[in-house]
Amino acid sequence: MVGTYEINEETQKRLHLCETTVIGSLLIDNDCFQNIEDLDADDFYRFDNRFIFGEIRTKIAAGELADIATLFDDLSVRHSETFERIGGIKFLVDAKECVNTTKNIRIWADTIQTAAKLRKMAAISVDMNHLIQTGTKLETIAETVDKRMIEILNTTSQNETTAMATAIATAVDWEDLDRKHIRTGLRDLDRMMSGLVDGNLVIIAGRPSSGKSSLAMQIAEHIAQEDPVLVFSLEMSCRELATRGLRYHESVVGRSEAVRHLSNLQLFINDRGGLSINHIRSQCRKMQHQHGLSLVVVDYLQLMIGEGDNRNQEIGFLSRGLKGIAKEFDVPVIALSQLSRKCEERMDKRPLMSDLRDSGEIEQDADAILFVYREDMYQQGTDLTGIAEIICRKNRNGGVGDIQCRWDGTVTRFLDFDGAKITRPQNSKVKDIFQKREPCFF
Length: 442
What we know:
- The protein is α/β, with parallel strands linked by helices.
- The protein has two domains: 1-161, Orthogonal Bundle (DNAb Helicase, Chain A); 176-423, P-loop containing nucleotide triphosphate hydrolases (Rossmann fold), CATH 3.40.50.300.
- The protein has helices at 9-28, 47-61, 68-78, 80-85, 89-97, 105-133, 138-153, 164-176, 187-193, 212-224, 238-253, 255-263, 277-290, 311-329, 361-365, and strands spanning 181-182, 196-197, 201-206, 229-233, 267-270, 295-299, 333-338, 368-374, 387-395, 401-408, 413-415, 422-423.
- Strands 3, 4, 5, 6, 7, 8, 9, 10, 11 and 12 form a ten-stranded mixed sheet that branches. A two-stranded antiparallel sheet has the order 1-2.
- A hairpin with a 4-residue loop joins strand 10 and strand 11.
- Helix 1 (9-28) packs across helix 5 and helix 6 (105-133) packs antiparallel against helix 7 (138-153).
- Mean pLDDT is 81; it is low at 429-442.
């Protein structure tokens, strides 16, 4: 359903002037079109302007000349009634004569596009009122409105192509930014994979009770000391997460200092179950507007609501959606994922990429994939009791390999320790950007 919305007379006159000026500019110089290629005929408010612009656009896109003579010859044959109704050749002459300069065509096009978006937003309000009147569920209304708003806002007038010189300049600036690689708070993990990168989707996977939620929350807490972090906890409640954090810090610095420290974190938790991509995107946008946003954590992927004919398609839809959110908000997104039971059927139970549950598309969409593995979950009395391995199988922006951490199950915490084994592939030549070993609070 799409509602209709009428604008006032003054706005109509202003839009008519913008629209005819764009048309007139193109009639004067077809080359102007390269500055407004993203402008669509549907963006025009008036039918006559929409009709003529569509014809001009079609001709120019086909490599044909679009001037008064060619349009008159063409439209007089193919659309004679419509052309005559909107004013015929006089319409074209008037549009051309109203233009003083073609230099501002981009400004006029931006005005037309902005007005088109505002009309679409106003139409959404009409539709929303209809949904309310017909007794539609609140959640359905919210998701419908949010989805349509995102579609409107994601249409952009910016050029989608970038010259290599511009891309190189941007890359050099990005390499120089201190915030390019964001520390996780685990010394050896940072040294191995070079921290987290804005716009990246990071998957943390493991079998139940392996510590994947604890690892994600530990990273979130570390970053939240300086920057705002949003956690979507679909499995555990806010109280449970807070209790875990309090238990660890209380064991280190006492109750009062632990409460003070945790209360000062810029950590925000949403523990609503059954979240969709649209809801997460909406909450991220709200968070960014109110507090800023530096990291998003989703615990966990398989509990979200996806779209598709089967579970594999649903999970693929969700992983693509989370990658889109990482790029849209330019922050790292950490998503937790379950593993299939296949890893427990092997002698060596260390997880492989093929163990990711429900979809191979997770492997494709993720920029980095970490597995949490603990030998003592499978073998009692092992020499590796209390030792966890974090295995990085994929990393587009850093190194891969295995690291060891001390695992304290009583406070569900991963800890650095001297002498921890770090294993990299023999051909790894990734630069260690965190060579200086600095003490971490966590």
